[in-house]
Design goal:
By secondary structure, this protein is an alpha+beta fold. Helices cover 45% and strands 20% of the residues.
Length: 306
């Protein structure tokens, strides 16, 4: 299947919709499709490990001082949970931004280690976010995976096999360097990945960076260096970003008050929360509080926007 054929399949799968942004989760776990008909402003969000194949349009993703722009035929590989600023830069009703997204399973990547052996491709400085041209075999595998949504029985039998093939294609891709590092359980990439998991689970409680470094079998300075290299930020700033983004969700989706959102995500001072929120999002948190009638209309419309 060509890229254009897959773009048409995604557009048809999403169907008619009056909104400018439409994301849809498929019956296959971890498979999403996305369409957007106009450019957007930068939005702060957390990306999870995924492969995002851009079928049409263009998108920009920034992490720390690094920025990745990828267009049609290119795919973005995200290897770790990372806070980013993202925006669609090229989209229109006639030629919308279209993408197919598959969540990555690190367990599948590691299960391929014995079969793949030592990676043939080596990267001196692999990145957590990397975009490059997509091999036609990977495009074909993603197209076959999306096609499984038409037949539940075929999806049950063939889904795990094609998903495994997708992970294999990514491991051998030119921009799959960080995934190749994750194959090794004791690599710096794997250690930082485990630390990120701890922070995400306990982001509401005070962060003990020294304890995280010890668990990762690193000195505090080495831990900071590798953490920043992978995420574009420090452990404390990473935790702060998680808190602020969760608070924004509470304000905009659940209609929480400013003070309740602040305390819910771990802040002890609503004043400090408001100051840091304004610095990150460019607007006071009170401006993002939604009325109950708007909240009720939005609860069922939360979609993946990668």
């Amino acid at each position: 299947m060509t890229l254009q054929d897959l773009a048409r399949s995604v557009d048809e799968f999403i169907g008619d919709d009056a909104g400018s942004v439409k994301g849809r989760e498929t019956a296959l776990e971890g498979l999403f499709v996305h369409r957007q008909t106009k450019p957007s402003a930068f939005e702060a969000t957390v990306y999870h490990p995924v492969i995002c194949l851009n079928l049409q349009g263009r998108k920009q993703v920034s992490i720390g001082d690094r920025s990745v722009v990828f267009g049609a035929g290119q795919s973005l590989i995200v290897s770790h949970d990372v806070p980013v600023m993202a925006r669609v830069t090229e989209a229109s009703p006639q030629s919308p931004y279209l993408a197919i997204i598959v969540a990555l399973d690190i367990a599948i990547i590691r299960s391929l280690c014995d079969e793949v052996g030592k990676p043939v491709l080596e990267d001196r400085k692999p990145s957590t976010l990397t975009a490059n041209a997509t091999d036609s075999r990977l495009v074909d595998a993603l197209a076959r995976y999306l096609a499984l949504t038409r037949d539940p029985v075929e999806a049950k039998v063939m889904g795990p096999l094609i998903l495994r093939e997708i992970h294999f294609r990514l491991l051998t891709a030119s921009h799959g360097g960080m995934l190749r590092q994750l194959m090794q359980r004791d690599s710096h990439a794997s250690r930082i990945s485990r630390a990120i998991g701890r922070i995400r689970t306990d982001f509401r409680v005070p962060l003990a960076v020294a304890s995280l470094a010890e668990e990762a079998s690193m000195s505090p300075s080495s831990f900071h260096e590798h953490f920043r290299q992978l995420t574009g930020t420090t452990p404390l700033q990473y935790q702060k970003d998680l808190r602020l983004m969760e608070a924004r969700r509470l304000l905009t989706a659940d209609g929480a008050s400013v003070s309740s959102a602040a305390y819910e995500v771990g802040y002890e001072s609503a004043t400090q929360f408001s100051r840091e929120y304004s610095r990150k999002f460019g607007t006071p948190p009170r401006n993002d509080v939604r009325r109950p009638d708007i909240v009720a209309g939005r609860r069922s419309d939360r979609v993946a926007t990668l």
